[in-house]
Amino acid sequence: MSLPQFRLLRPRAVDEAVAFLSKHANNIRVLAGGTDLIPSMRQKLFEPEYVLDLRGIGDLRGIRPQTSGAVEIGALTALSAIEKSPYLRQHFPVLTEAAATVASPVLRNMGTLGGNICLDTRCLWYNQSLTWRKGCGFCIKKDGDLCHVAPGGTKCWAAFSGDTPPALLCLNGKIEIAGPTGMRRIPLEEFYTGDGENYRKLLPTELVTRVFLPAESADYRGVYRKLRVRGSIDYPLAGVAVVMKRSNGHVADARIAMTAVNPAPVLVRRAGEMLIGRIVDDALAEAAGDVAARTSKPLTTSALTPEYRREMIRVFTKRAVLAAACN
Ligand SMILES: Cc1cc2nc3c(=O)[nH]c(=O)nc-3n(C[C@H](O)[C@H](O)[C@H](O)COP(=O)(O)OP(=O)(O)OC[C@H]3O[C@@H](n4cnc5c(N)ncnc54)[C@H](O)[C@@H]3O)c2cc1C
Ligand code: SF4
Question: Which of 2, 13, 91, 160 is at a distance of 20 to 30 A from 268, taking alpha carbons?
Answer without folding.
Answer: 91
